[in-house]
Amino acid sequence: MKPVNVGLLGLGTVGGGTISVLNRNAEEITGRAGRAIQVTHASARDLNKQREFSTAGITLCQDPFEVVNNPDIDIVAELIGGIEPARELVLKAIANDKHVVTANKALIALHGNEIFRAAQNQGVMVAFEAAVAGGIPIIKAIREGLSANRIEQVAGIINGTSNFILTEMRERGLQFDAVLDEAKELGYAEADPSFDIEGTDAAHKLTILAAIAFGIPLQYDKVHTEGITDITPADVDYAGELGYRIKHLGIARRTDHGIETRVHPTLVPRKRLMANVEGVMNAVLVKGDAVGPTIYYGAGAGAEPTASAVVADLVDVTRALTSDPENRVPHLAFQPDALNDGGVLAVEDNETAYYLRMSAIDQPGVLAEITRILGERDISIEAFLQKEQEPDTTHVPIILLTQKVREGNMNAAIEAIEKLPVVSGRIMRIRVETLA
Ligand SMILES: NC(=O)c1ccc[n+]([C@@H]2O[C@H](COP(=O)([O-])OP(=O)(O)OC[C@H]3O[C@@H](n4cnc5c(N)ncnc54)[C@H](O)[C@@H]3O)[C@@H](O)[C@H]2O)c1
Ligand SMILES: N[C@@H](CCO)C(=O)O
Ligand code: NA
Questions:
Q1: Considering only Cβ atoms within 10 Å of each terminal Cβ, which end of the chain, N or C, has fewer?
Q2: For ligand 2, what atom is nearest to the CA of residue 132?
Q3: Contact 109, 218 (CB under 8 A)
Q4: Is the CB of 13 under 6 A from ligand 2?
Q5: What is the pLDDT of residues 164-181, one digit of tens each?
Q6: What is the value of ipTM here, to two decimals?
Q7: Residues forming the annotated binding site for NADP(+)?
Q8: Beta carbons within 10 angstroms of residue 226's beta carbon
Q9: Domain 4-136+304-338 top-level CATH class
C-alpha cells in the first residue's frame, strides 16, 4: 500500500524525537498502521543547523506554509508550539484537507473549539495525545478506554518541569533557578518557562482533560491557575513534618454544585501514589463511577516520550484514513451535539482543605484570635504546628491544617487574619487534597 506522507512543522525537541522514533521503529510502526508512515517534508527555521537526528530523504524548507500547501502531504504534524503561526497553519492544513497531529496544548486549550469545528466540517482528524502528559496515553484512556463511565474526577501531575523542580528542591535542597536551568537543558521546559512555573501549561492541559472527561467545550478562562513560584523550602519542610508532600496538581472534579477546574500547588499525603511521583514523571488519577480510581504514570516531557505520543497519533490517523468521518472517535470524546456547558464553578465555590502558614507575635491569646476568625466562617482546624521564634524577630511561624471549606469563606478568613495587628505579612496558603 502507498506510504502515508507526513509534513512536519518544527524540528526542535519533539520534532527531532518524532523523526528518530519513526526511523528506528519503522518496521513495527508499518506493521501496526498497515502502511509505511514517512516524513517527506519538514520546515525548520535554520536549514543548516547540525542536528542529532538524520534528515536524509526529507525535503527541508523554511516556510511552514510550503509544507501545509503541498498537495502530496496527507498528515501535518505541528510541532512548532505557541499560538501564531501555529493556529493559522493548522487551520490552513485542515482547509487543504489534511489531517493534523499536534503536541501544542496552548493551541488546543485556547483555540481547540474553533479547530475541531473546522476539522469536523472538513471531515479530517486532529489528534493531540502529546499535548497532555507527554508520553502517557491519557487522552486515549479517557476518550476510549473509559467511555462507559460517568467520570467523577481527573487529578494529576501534568507539568513535568514543575514536578522536576519540586523534587530537586526537596531531595537535593537545590535553589529554584538552578533546577529550572537544568529542566531547560533537558528539553522539558516550554519556550517561555514561565508557562511551566506559573501553572499556565498545566492549566492548558487541564482544560483539555476536563473537556474530554465531562463532555464540555474547552474553557481555559475558567481554570483557576497558580504556579509553584511562591513555594519556599520552609513550606516543603513543614509539609513533610505534617506527613505531606507538595505537588503541583491539576484537578477537574464533578461536585453537586458544578465542575471545579483548578491548577495549584497541593499538599498530598505522603503515602499516596501521587505524592511519590518524582522528577519529570507525570501521573493522572481518573475516577469513573464504574471502574473506580485508575492511575496513569509515565514521562510527561522530553523528546522521545513526547514523540511516542505523536507517532501513536500518526498511526491512529493512518488506521482511520479510510473510515467514514461520522464513525471516528470524536475529538472531545463526546459527539459535538452531545457537548454541554457543564456548569464550571467560579473558584470561590471550590471546596478544599488548606495548609496556612503565617507569622505572628509570640504572646498569649494570639492563637485564640486566629481560631475565632476561622470558627466564625465554619473553618475547623485539623492540625497545628508552632515553630521556634524566627531569628532576629519577635515572631513565630504558625502552621495550620484546616478541614474542607468553601474557598470564598477561606478568602474572607485570610483577609481578616491578615488585618490582625499581631499577624505580620501575607498568609501562605496551599490547598490540601487527600485524593482518596
Ligand atoms: N519538549 C517537551 O517535552 C514537550 C512535551 C509535550 C509537548 N510539547 C509541545 O511540543 C511543541 C514543540 O515543543 P519543543 O519542546 O519541541 O519546542 P522547541 O523549541 O524545541 O522546537 C520548536 C521548533 O519549531 C521551530 N519554529 C518555531 N517557530 C517556527 C516557525 N514559525 N516556522 C518554522 N519553525 C518554527 C523552532 O525553530 C524550533 O526548532 C510545543 O507545542 C510544546 O508545548 C513539548
Ligand atoms: N513543558 C512541559 C512539556 C510537556 O508538555 C512540561 O514540563 O510538562
Ligand atoms: Na499524552
A1: C
A2: 5
A3: yes
A4: no
A5: 999 998 888 888 888 999
A6: 0.98
A7: 9-16
A8: 21
A9: alpha beta
